[in-house]
Amino acid sequence: MWKVITKDFNKEDIINHGNKFLIGNGYMGYRGTLEEFGKNELVALNLPGVYDQYENKWREPVNAPNPLFTRVIYDGTELNPIVINPVFHQQTLDISCGLHKRESTFDINNKQITITSERFAHLTKYSLLVMKYSVKTNAHLNLVIETGIDGDVWDINGPHLNPYQIVNENNIVTFSTNTRECHIPIVVSETILCDFNAKISNIIDSHKLIRQINLNIEKDKTYTFYKFASVKHSLDEAEANMQAMNEINSASVLGYEKLFIENYLEWQKRWLVSDVELKGDEEAQFSLRYSIYHLLILNQKHSDKVSIPARGISGQTYKGAIFWDTEMFMLPFYLNTDLQTAKNLVKYRINTLDGARRKAMEYGFRGAFYAWESQETGDDACSHFNVTDVFTNRPLRTYFRDKQVHISADIVYGIWQTYLRINDLSLLINGGAEVIFECARFYYSYGYLKHDKNRFEILDVTGPDEYHERVNNNAFTNRMALETFNIAIKVSKLLKAENKESFDNLIKKLNYTEDLKRIEEVVKILYVPQPNNSGIIEQFDGYFKLEEVTVDEVKSRLIHPNEYWGGANGIAANTQIIKQADVVTLLYFFNDEYSSEIKKTNWDYYLKRTEHGSSLSASMYALVACENGNPEWAYPYFMKSATVDLTGKSKQYAGGIYIGGTHPAASGGAYMTAIYGFAGLKIIENQIKCFPHLPKNWESMSFKVILNNDLYKLDITKNNITIAKEDNSW
Ligand code: IFM
Question: CA nearest 195: which of 229, 223, 214, 227?
Answer without folding.
Answer: 223
